[in-house]
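Table S2 (text version). Query chain:
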Amino acid sequence: MKKYKIGQIVPSSNITMETEIPAIFRARETILPERFTFHSSRMRMKKVTKEELEAMDAMSLKCAQELSDAHVDVMGYACLVAIMSMGRGYHCVSEVNLHQETIANDFPTPIVTSAGALINGLKVLGAKQISIITPYMRPLTDKVVDYIEHQGIKVKESIALEIPDNLEVAAQNPMNLLEIYKQLDLLGV
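Corresponding structure-token output:
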């Protein structure tokens, strides 16, 4: 049985990634033989604002070094809006920069960002047009829309839940989305 160490680069106020991602992999372990452990390094961020996201992103390089010290098998940068708020296509830049940190630390490690994973996943699915719901304030949601559209995927409609506090984002009941999504125009998506 192969064991993998997964490194997560997370915002300091994110309290969901270290519970949700392991739960997904634990469910996988019931049907497949591989096993996983999870290791995190945090970047400071309380409010989901462009300024805090930029400051937080600068800390991601130190996080990559720390996780590289643990010889993780893969690293995930778990803040989609931080990457997308840095500008179009920034997930490619971030993934290269973080990987370079692991090389410099003598333990080259594959890197994935949540933004890159979303874009790649949408492309694999052949998505041409989508509608989205974000927890972010409208200006950041507009940046997410622009980012996705720059990757060749039209965003027909977006709902911004306008939650500036990252702990408040985590406190939301995900089941509420089953009602919120009904407000979206999904024709043709």
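Notes on Table S2: The longest strand covers residues 3-11. Residues 3-183 form a domain with the Rossmann fold fold (CATH 3.40.50.12500).
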